[in-house]
């Protein structure tokens, strides 16, 4: 299996590359910096901004999830795919809109419908939570098994996104509290949220976090029955100091448990 360097997923897949900043958490976006290299190498034009281009990835890239799904089903296991680490599935850009049906066809053909059989669990994470409902497939119904819907909530001013997410049918709902730039516990209702990922900001210009933010959201997750995954403290390099008081918290929703 090919593995992502992101600790809470097995694979990453980007149907297209390019996005626009819509939230304080976007200020030091790592994907924007990586996209600049692609702009130069492939002459794609500018890829970041509402009016910028979006670069649809090539055929070889689109074949990867098919391979991952075959291998997962052969092994009888479930693998996680973080979709759009360098874009947003629910972007309103015309290129995104034109490519999204093709993406959902791929997701539908590879998703894990039955954990006893195996396949892929697709993790769709967005800051555009208000756009999700209007962009889901017509046969979404109560939510496709094997497809998780998530939103980024970086601080108390974005806590309203959890209320919107809770109103969208999904087999799993999750929150990325990363980059954490403010306290969240006490500002958010975790009812109906299956999983929360927490982490500080990394890279140049990173904003400081507080260990108390993570202690408090850990305890709030325990109270609500929300699986809690702690990724890292704020640091220059991703993955540094992945502990709270010396304890590593790596929990996933029960649908894919147990995991190593």
The helix-strand sequence is EEHEHEHEHEHEEHE
**Biggest sheet record:** 7 strands, parallel
- What is the overall shape? globular
Q: State the domain count.
A: 1
CATH topology: TIM Barrel
Strand order of the largest sheet: 1-4-5-6-7-8-9
Radius of gyration: 18 Å
Number of helices: 6
Tell me the strand percentage band. 15-25%
Descriptive account of the structure:
By secondary structure, this protein is an alpha/beta fold. It has a single domain (about 10-15, about 60-255), classed as TIM Barrel (Alpha-Beta Barrel). The protein is built from 6 helices and 9 strands. It has helices spanning about 30-40, 60-75, 95-110, 130-135, 160-165, 210-225, and strands at about 10-15, 15, 55, 80-85, 120-125, 145-150, 170-175, 195-200, 225-230. Helix 2 (about 60-75) runs parallel beside helix 3 (about 95-110). It is globular and about 45 Å long.
Q: What topology emerges from the helices and strands here?
A:
Blueprint: E1 11-13, E2 16-17, H1 30-42, E3 55-56, H2 59-75, E4 78-83, H3 94-110, E5 119-126, H4 132-135, E6 147-152, H5 160-166, E7 172-177, E8 195-199, H6 211-224, E9 227-232
Parallel strand pairs: 1-4, 4-5, 5-6, 6-7, 7-8, 8-9
Antiparallel strand pairs: 2-3
